TrEMBL record:
InterPro entries: Ubiq_cyt_c_chap, Ubiqinol_cyt_c_chaperone_CPB3. Belongs to the CBP3 family. The lineage of its organism: Eukaryota, Fungi, Dikarya, Basidiomycota, Agaricomycotina. This is Ubiquinol-cytochrome c chaperone domain-containing protein. Coiled coil: none annotated. Transmembrane segments: none annotated.
Length: 278
């Protein structure tokens, strides 16, 4: 279910997410888009009768994070053309690092096709997985709240979780004073809730504005002064995503439990997500 319905969605809608939403071609962007579709399935699976609902839901989340960990290891895997004997990775479910990397077009694996020289650093893998689990929980809670409170709340969740909260501190125009400095303008949104993503305790030393001006390498940051016109599309983009989310939830709701679980002989294709913009 996960492999056929969620893992491919970023590639299938690559033009929308990368060209219209200006998400960078990174693994983080792929995770964000995939996480949204995992949540969409989660909403439907929660409505299944027990204990099947819990089994299906747990299997979906397990497959999601096993796949994410495998991809993280592939992205972090140091590579060289020199062949070496490698010990197995720590995680028992993880394939040998010399095996074929996941096929994906949304982001680039710089080490693809090369012989690895060692396993991905476990410390980095563990930290990154904690960050992704935090983001998974955060998006789920935000979208659940939007599901209950209405489209405006859901649009806010889309803006924060999928569009990088660009412009949270205001829009900078070419005529603004801050855009006339010697250095190119740069600002990104900071997660003030804390957790693994942002260490809020460090802000007492560096200051919020100084931290916002640091490039974290994610590729998601406010548009520059010369790109301010791109914000004009944001209400339309948020409306498109909210409409897509609502329509897909309604469509999945109309499927019977037997169809969702495949008990009537239905293929998983009956649950296949539609395009965001037809």
């Amino acid at each position: 279910m996960y492999e056929k319905l969620c893992a491919l969605r970023a590639d299938e809608e690559r033009a929308f997410w990368r060209d219209r939403c200006h998400l960078p071609p990174t693994f983080q962007s792929w995770f964000t888009v995939t996480n949204l579709h995992v949540w969409l399935l989660t909403v439907r699976l929660r409505a299944l009768p027990e204990p099947q609902g819990q089994y299906y839901l747990q299997a979906l989340i397990d497959h999601f994070f096993l796949d994410v960990e495998d991809r993280v290891r592939a992205v972090l895997q140091p590579a060289t053309r020199q062949k070496r004997h490698l010990p197995p990775p720590v995680a028992s479910h993880t394939p040998d690092p010399t095996s074929e990397l996941p096929t994906v077009q949304f982001y680039t694996v710089s080490n693809a096709g090369k012989e690895p020289k060692g396993n991905a650093p476990e410390r980095l893998v563990t930290r990154q997985m904690k960050i992704f689990k935090e983001q998974w929980a955060g998006l789920g809670m935000a979208m659940d709240l939007g599901l209950v409170k209405g489209d405006a709340e859901m649009a806010g969740a889309v803006w924060r979780n999928l569009l990088g909260a660009r412009g949270a501190r205001g829009i900078i125009y070419p005529s603004s004073e801050v855009s006339k400095g010697d250095k190119p303008y740069f600002r990104r949104s900071i997660n003030l809730v804390g957790g693994e993503v942002e260490k809020v305790s460090t802000l007492d030393k560096t200051g919020l504005e100084a931290e916002e001006a640091k490039d974290d390498g994610s590729g998601v940051h406010d548009f520059g002064p010369n790109e301010a016109a791109l914000y004009v599309r944001y209400p339309e983009l948020m409306a498109d995503v909210v409409k897509y989310v609502r329509s897909e939830l309604v469509r999945l709701e109309k499927l019977s439990d037997e169809q969702v679980m495949g008990r009537d002989g239905s293929s998983v294709d009956v649950m296949k997500f539609r395009r965001i913009r037809e």
